[in-house]
Amino acid sequence: MSTLDQIAKLSGFSKATVSRVLNGSRHVSPDTREKILAIMKEQDYVPNRNAVSLSKGRTQQIGMITMNLNELILHFMNGFVESAGRHGFQTIIYTTGGDSQKELQALEDLKRKRVDGLLILTSVSSPGLIASYRKYGPIVSWQRMDHPDIPSVAMNQFEGYTLALEHLLSRGYTRIANAFGRPSSINTQSRREAYEQAMAAYSLPVDEQWYYSSIYSIADGERVLRSLLEQQERPEAVLCANDLVAAGILSEARRQGLGVPENLAIVGFDDTELAKTMGITTVRNPVAGQAENAFRLLAPALLGKALALQPLAFSLAIRETT
Amino acid sequence: MSTLDQIAKLSGFSKATVSRVLNGSRHVSPDTREKILAIMKEQDYVPNRNAVSLSKGRTQQIGMITMNLNELILHFMNGFVESAGRHGFQTIIYTTGGDSQKELQALEDLKRKRVDGLLILTSVSSPGLIASYRKYGPIVSWQRMDHPDIPSVAMNQFEGYTLALEHLLSRGYTRIANAFGRPSSINTQSRREAYEQAMAAYSLPVDEQWYYSSIYSIADGERVLRSLLEQQERPEAVLCANDLVAAGILSEARRQGLGVPENLAIVGFDDTELAKTMGITTVRNPVAGQAENAFRLLAPALLGKALALQPLAFSLAIRETT
DNA sequence: TTGAAAGCGTTACCAA
DNA sequence: TTGGTAACGCTTTCAA
Q1: Closest residue to D2 (CA, C1′)
Q2: Per-position DSSP letters for A241-265, written without gaps between them
Q3: Does the nearest atom of strand D lie within 7 Å of A233's Cβ?
Q4: Using the 8-state DSSP alphabet, how is residue A267 labeled?
Q5: Which partner from A86, A224, A313, B206 sits 20 to 30 angstroms from A181, CA to CA?
Q6: Which residue is the nearest neighbor of C8, CA to C1'?
Q7: Which residue stretches of chain A are H helix?
Q8: Mean pLDDT computed over B50-78
Q9: pLDDT in tens, A56-95
Q10: Which of A94, A112, A277 sits opposite B247 (nearest CB)?
Q11: Residue A154: DSSP 8-state
């Protein structure tokens, strides 16, 4: 493994000049540059990244913290890796499994200068703790983080939920049930608000028994369907927290011989591969755009210049379940 | 940000001693250790990883190269991240999108000492090119790499395919079609071999028209089903290259009103979430175990000691399609 | 058990 | 345009 020093010696120039060639400085004569480049190629030389990082004080790496990896997160990740890559940054992934110790390790890596910045997808640490690492580098979050120092790229679900509701209402469905996620989350609150506003706009009653909470998984969806069947006034449609839930409801409906969408319309959320496969109508969550924005939020600190945020919007993927 | 040098000055000891404390050397008096640790804590000191990496010549990072991310790869990834983590290694992901330039960049990162080793999941580069980087660090592959210097953790599909066949045969299915993937791949060859041996063992005929090739996706699966329906002697069961194909066949069968498994039994491969959701019988591919083994193959070079490989086996997840 | 000093491979400042 | 040299922050001999 040849080093910059060796290249300098072989070429007869100083390390400084070799370094200038490496970094594309204009203060090198074309002649010199050429000679040095030739020797580099001949010696199969590449700079040692640790040395560069130590010297420059930057690693060109961004850490991404997530509790687990699922399809939606994957999309986000892909988008982010791509955006960061375009600007010369690599992404390193910290999967924590919800272990706060592992999360802390990732945060420490910002302090220890292994990464130049941090992107938090999902985490269990308190916003306060996370924010206390802001002094070591930029940190942005996907989910809303409820702290002035940690910007977020999450979108208000109100718009997306309204989109789905308008779709159902326009098709004549009026008795619409909701399978919400975490009751206390801002997302659930926005969705509920959207629901109540839409129903009010159409002068339709809001039935509290059509609110399901803490519904996350396929199994949860299956339970919801069975519960729906037992209701005296059975809903004609159900709006789900995510596509997994919708998939669970759909497959259980099939098992129970309930026609979809004749007897029950189903709308998912996120537009994952699963929804596509199973033909589920769903709200398309522009995660790739959010990922791009996540990088743009980091840009000022990382690139020294701001990048304008992309405007994003939900849209609807209409399939066979409505 | 305090440095080791500052800790040394504050404690009155030398940098060497502070470093010894950091690295848990036994040649430090308990008293000294305590004092130094106290000052470190007080100063909120953590070592700079770039400096450590440069000095030690190792980064404790492993690069993972993949063209794209899907569910199966995700499982593998998770398993590997977990295994590597247990031994103090972080994983950094290179998603190449099949771009050989990006792949090269990942390989170069081994040379540039950004990573200590490389794990290849899927790649387009020639085994020869990849192997030429072996001199910079250990490299292992998931898929079979056809080069003596690049070990692989892929499993022979013969056993898994045989498992599925035995299952079908024991349930009385005799006319069994195959949806194979890439015709030239070793996997396909093993599967075909398994098929022919199993049929021979049961004295059943092998019908060439029940061989489908280059079947990968959901859409491919849908096409296969339509084609199956047109055959004069329609098969009673179909064995698929992966769960996506099985899902495609299943959903198209439903659309066509073909009863599953009464009129057609379906078996997938890999046991992904999709198979679970749709209730598809499938062969469980122990990817997490393979990931663990991938790390164990890197271990000699990384840890300086060998770790025994885990014995792995396919198993069957029997669901509603058989 | 401790310390001095020479690396590790770059970058960046100051002169020339 | 070039060179000398001090950082960058740690580890690792070699002595004491």
Answers
A1: A17
A2: SSHHHHHHHHHHHHHTT--TTTT-E
A3: no
A4: E
A5: A313
A6: B55
A7: 4-11, 15-22, 30-43, 49-56, 71-86, 100-111, 127-131, 157-170, 186-201, 218-230, 243-255, 273-278, 287-303
A8: 93
A9: 999 999 999 999 888 889 899 999 999 999 999 999 989 9
A10: A277
A11: P
3-class DSSP state of A1: coil
> Whole-angstrom Cα distance, residue B266 to residue B259?
11
Q: Which of A132-136, B116-120, B253-257 has the lowest mean pLDDT?
A: B253-257
CA dihedral A139→A140→A145→A149, nearest 10 degrees, is 50
Nearest nucleotide by C1' from A8 CA? D3
Q: How far is B293 from chain A (nearest CA, A)?
A: 20
Q: Which residues of chain A are within 8 Å of residue B91 when distances are taken between CB atoms?
A: 92-93
CA A37 to chain centre: 41
| B28 CB inside 7 Å of strand C | yes
Taking an 8 Å cut-off on Cβ atoms, the answer to whether B113 and A50 are in contact is yes
**Contact assignment for B93 to A91 by CB distance below 8 Å:** yes
Q: Which residue in the set A54, A85, A95 is minimally distant from B51, CB to CB?
A: A54
Look at residue A264 and tell me whether its pLDDT is greater than 90. Answer: yes
> CB of B138 within 8 A of CB of B168?
no
Contacts of B107 in chain A (CB under 8 A): none
Question: A109 and B78: CB-CB below 8 Å?
Answer: no
Distance between CA A205 and CA A233 in Å, rounded?
13
3-state SS track over chain B: CCCHHHHHHHHCCCHHHHHHHHCCCCCCCHHHHHHHHHHHHHHCCCCCHHHHHHHHCCCCEEEEEECCCCHHHHHHHHHHHHHHHHCCCEEEEEECCCCHHHHHHHHHHHHCCCCCEEEECCCCCCHHHHHCCHHHCCEEECCCCCCCCCCECCCCHHHHHHHHHHHHHHCCCCCEEEECCCCCCHHHHHHHHHHHHHHHHCCCCCCHHHEECCCCCHHHHHHHHHHHHHCCCCCCEEEECCHHHHHHHHHHHHHCCCCCCCCCEEEEEECCHHHHHHCCEEEECCHHHHHHHHHHHHHHHHHCCCCCCCCCCCEEECCCCC
Q: How far is CA A145 from the centre of its chain?
A: 14
Task: Determine the average pLDDT of the residues in B159-165.
Answer: 97
Whether the model clears a pTM of 0.85, i.e. scores above it, the answer is yes
For residue A7, what are its two tokens?
Answer: 């290249």
| Gap between the Cα atoms of A116 and A89, Å rounded | 9
Contact, A31 CB vs strand D, < 7 Å: yes
